[in-house]
Design brief:
The complex is a heterodimer of chains A (about 110) and B (about 110).
Chain A lengths: L3 E4 L2 E5 L4 E7 L6 E7 L5 E8 L4 E4 L2 E6 L4 E6 L8 E8 L7 E2 L3 E6 L1
Parallel strand pairs in A: 2-11
Antiparallel strand pairs in A: 1-3, 3-8, 4-5, 4-9, 6-7, 7-8, 9-10, 9-11
Chain B lengths: L3 E4 L2 E4 L5 E7 L5 E7 L5 E9 L2 E4 L6 E3 L9 E3 L8 E8 L8 E2 L3 E5 L1
Parallel strand pairs in B: 2-11
Antiparallel strand pairs in B: 1-3, 3-8, 4-5, 4-9, 5-6, 7-8, 9-10, 9-11
The chains are: A mainly beta (about 110), B mainly beta (about 110).
């Protein structure tokens, strides 16, 4: 059974810092991996989707990497801003017709 | 674009009552999902559908039922509500066979007292 772990559970950084959020998964035979952002009281917004054949995806100040063999993904946020404060969730899919398995998320606070 | 629309946003139920959470999407997506999110926890899949007339159980289906009579709508029914069903419920959709991003609704916060 696939399990997804995100460490740390919470992170607080000063504005302007570069930071890395971690995601690990137990079954490396994944189909794809997504990073989501969740603001308090809101639904999830998909940030980046990495296929199993890809090593990384970039969108603006966000860069997500994938190392299938070690069962890890990282989300790199450059030059953090207070508006980046949210919970970030990682989710993996094991095959094309199986649902996503989510981690519990990392709650990020960027202090001005 | 409306995207994925969930109603109601908040609801309080008494133990034993029943209700239906509504979910509609206007993106012509094949796949639709119902998740629940408990405080400090990740999302757990309740039911999903790969198209109209086809539904399947997820990780935590007990106490819930779904139907998918149209591509647009995927209602979730709670029968005989229990305090353990107090949670935030999210509906999501995706266009294809699993390679695409998921689009989420804004959630329904349900309390069973």
């Amino acid at each position: 059974k696939q399990e997804v772990t995100q460490i740390p559970a919470a992170l607080s950084v000063p504005e302007g810092e570069n930071l890395v959020l971690n995601c690990s998964f137990t079954d490396s035979a994944i189909y794809n991996l997504q990073w989501f952002r969740q603001d308090p009281g809101k639904g999830l917004t998909s940030l980046l989707l990495i296929q199993s054949s890809q090593r990384e995806q970039t969108s603006g100040r966000l860069n997500a990497s994938l190392d299938k063999s070690s069962g890890r993904s990282t989300l790199y946020i450059a030059a953090s801003q207070p508006g980046d404060s949210a919970t970030y969730l990682c989710a993996v899919r094991n095959s094309g017709n199986t649902p996503l398995v989510f981690g519990k998320g990392t709650r990020l606070s960027v202090i001005a | 674009n409306a995207g994925v629309t969930q109603t109601p946003k908040f609801r309080i139920l008494k133990i034993g009552q029943s209700m239906t959470l509504q979910c509609a999407q206007d993106m012509n997506h094949n796949y639709m999902y119902w998740y629940r999110q408990d405080p400090g926890m990740g999302l757990k899949l309740i039911y999903y559908s790969v198209g109209a007339g086809i539904t399947d159980k997820g990780e935590v289906p007990n106490g819930y039922n779904v139907s998918r009579s149209t591509t647009e709508d995927f209602p979730l029914r709670l029968e005989l509500a229990a305090p353990s069903q107090t949670s935030v419920y999210f509906c999501a959709s995706s266009p294809g066979t699993g390679t695409e991003k998921l689009f989420f609704g804004s959630g329904t916060q349900l309390s069973v007292l």
